[in-house]
Amino acid sequence: MFPTVPFRTTRLVSALVVLTCAVMLxxxxxxxxxxxxxxxxxxxxxxxxxxAGAYGTLPFIRRxxxxxxxxxxxxxxxxxxCVDGHExxxxxxxxxxxxxxxxxxxxxxxxxRQVVQGDTxxxxxxxxxxxxxxxxxxxxxxxx
Length: 144
Known about the structure:
Helix content is 60%, strand content 7%. By secondary structure, it is mainly α.
């Protein structure tokens, strides 16, 4: 027999692995000489890739949590040169922010479209509930 691992533990471990990989990918951007303001698009592409990769590899983590962690990581990379006595680089910070927003925007636009089309259900404790009526949705079969 193989030991079973709880689903929550698996989600936590996978989130920590993705966060560790993201930090290792963007850590060189914190070095002042790593990217000049003329090459700010490199940071944007890296942050786009990291954020989109997190959305792809962590399907059970809430989209808002991934967006918040990506923005905090972007902020940490942006102000890291200040620890060494250097000034902030607005072009690099705005490019990094643009990379995160390019990855986040399609996900929130898709959810906006769902809400506008009337899909206001969400999963609560394993059953579908209509937010507007606070009663079980009738169009979805219930598990017994």
